[in-house]
UniProtKB/TrEMBL annotation:
PANTHER family: OXIDOREDUCTASE (EUROFUNG), PTHR45033. It holds the Pfam family ADH_N. Residues 1-20 are annotated as: Disordered. GO terms for molecular function: oxidoreductase activity. This is GroES-like protein. Residues 27-341 form the Enoyl reductase (ER) domain. It comes from Aaosphaeria arxii CBS 175.79.
Amino acid sequence: MANVSTYSAWRRSGKKGSKDHPLSIYRTYDEILPKNLDPTDVVIKIHAVSLNYREIAMLIGTYPVEIEDRGVPCSDAAAEVVATGSAVSRFAVGDRVCPITGIGKLEPFDDGMSQAIGSNCPGVLREYAVFDQKHLVAIPAHLSWEEASTLPCAGLTAWNSLDGLKNVPKGASALLQGTGGVSMFALILCLSAGIRPIITSSSDEKLAAIKKLSPEIQGLNYKTVSDHKTEILRLTGGKGSLMDDISFLCERGGTVSMVGFLNGFDADWAPGDIMRLMGKAAKLKGIAVGSRLEFEDMNRYLEENEVHLSPLLVDQPFTFAKAQDAYDRLESGKFHGKIIIKLDS
C-alpha cells in the first residue's frame, strides 16, 4: 500500500434533495485511511466504478431509502486487495474483489436489516475503502476491472431476475424492458444460457446496435409498435411474454421479475389482474439485488462459461476527475449498457 494515509473521494452535497433543488457531488482530497485495522478488515484500492440510476435518484430525492448526509455515493466497484487485518482468511494482498451491495446480506434468506453501500453507508466512488472480509467476493479471473465493476448491482439483479439460470426450459424467451445495465446484463446471461432475449426500447438506433451482438436478439420499439401483444406473440413463436398486461404472459409457467423504480412504486395492476397469474401457473418476483452467496454463484457461472461482459461497455469510461460528467451522461439516458468511471491504476 506504500504508506498511503489519505485519499480522494466524491461525496454528495447533503442528505435530501428534490427535483427542483437536487443535491450535487463534490470531490475531497483528504479522506483518511485508518492506521489500525480490525482483525477481519480488508483495505481495497478501487480500479473501476459503475453507475446505476439510483445515484441520480438520491440526488433528486426519489430514492426510497434514507441516505447518509454527505455520503460517498455508488455501490458497484472492482478493486484490488492492498492490505489485510490479522485474521483475514478469505483474501490475500493482490486478490481482485467486489464489495457486496447489501452489507449484512450474506445468504438469500437472511432476514435482518442490512445497509446498502452508497446510500445509508459509505459507497465506493473513492480511491480506497475498508470492508470486512465477509462483505467481499472474488472477481472472475477473465473479467477486466471495468467489466467486473458491473457485477454487484446490475449483474446480481439480472442473475436473480433469471432465477440464477436454474432449470431453463428448452426454447425459453425473456422480455427485457429497456436498455439499461440490468437489461443488458440479463441479455448477456440469456445468450449464454440459450434463452432468446427480446429487448424493448423507444430508440430504433439503440435496438439496431444491440441486435448486432447476436442474431438471436429480437427488438421491440414500444413507441412505434402499437399492438404490443401481437408483436410479442410473433417474436416468441406464439408463447407470449409480459409487456403491459398479464394476459400477454406465456400460457404456463412464466416468471415476472419486478426490478427497479424508474417510474416510481405505483402500479396499474388491480388485484383481479394479479389473480390471473394463478391460471397461468406464473410466478411474480420482487428483486432486490441479492446476497453474497448468490453473488458467488453468479461469478462461478460467469467464470466456468467464460461469459464476457464487454457488450455492457459501449461508452468510453470516464476518469475519476470527470465523475460529474459521468453523472451527467447517466442522467441523460442517451446510452445503453453501463457508465463506468475508471480510476488511475
